[in-house]
Amino acid sequence: MSGPLMQLLSQGMRLWLTSVCSELEQLDLDLDGSALGLLAGHLQGGKLTAKGVVFQNLALANVELQSDPIDFEVGGLIKKQKLQLKHKFQIQGCVTFSAANLNKSLANPHWLSFSNNIASQLLGANNLASYAIAENKLSLHSGDGRSIQCNLEVLDGMLWLQPIDSKSTAAIPVPMDPAIRLENVLIEGQQLKLTGSSIVSAGAAGSK
After folding, report:
1. For a disulfide at 60, which of 53, 139, 153, 198, Cβ 3.0-4.6 Å?
2. Coil, strand or helix: which one is 97?
3. Measured between alpha carbons, how far is residue 158 from residues 138, 140, 203 in Å?
4. Could you tell me which residues are beta bridge partners of residue 141?
5. Region 28-49 average pLDDT
6. Is the pLDDT of residue 195 over 60?
7. Residues of 50-77 as b/e, b for ≥16 C-beta within 10 angstroms?
8. 45-55 β-sheet, strand order
């Protein structure tokens, strides 16, 4: 459906997405709603695909998301204010990383403590220099030339790093936003793909 209100809503969502992502190269947004529903501040759902995204200090190659129904404040939207949500809603979908994305994320200071921790635990090194994706596995490399291969597993909605051929080292949890619950992880070719769901809280679209 198209129309002035849908265009305002689409613009509001695009502005919000641009504000919460430090990088966003390409964005396609498909919103689903009726005229009466939009006037009441109700959207039946939406689909989003994006490329070249940096969100919460993570560099993502591709993002594909689909939302449950969304309730929003019509008044603020008409005044071209930031989109305000009435209720939290759930999104489902997947994100894809390349090795270059993982290394870009690794270089972010936000992940320094985690990368140093896994370098120490898995490699006995002071720091982690790079990631690589090969043979359906994730390889970790330290600055002094040491390396180890790991599997990635999803347990109870969280992502775990499991060293291969290392009986003495337990799996290491990867820090995640508590609102995200993963369902599956797949390493295929040169890409890492995570599938799951997340809750967007009321008011989140109105704040950076």
Report:
1. 53
2. strand
3. 17, 20, 26
4. 130, 147
5. 90
6. yes
7. bebbbbeebbbbbbbbbbbebbbbbeeb
8. 21-32, 45-55, 58-67, 89-98, 191-200, 180-188
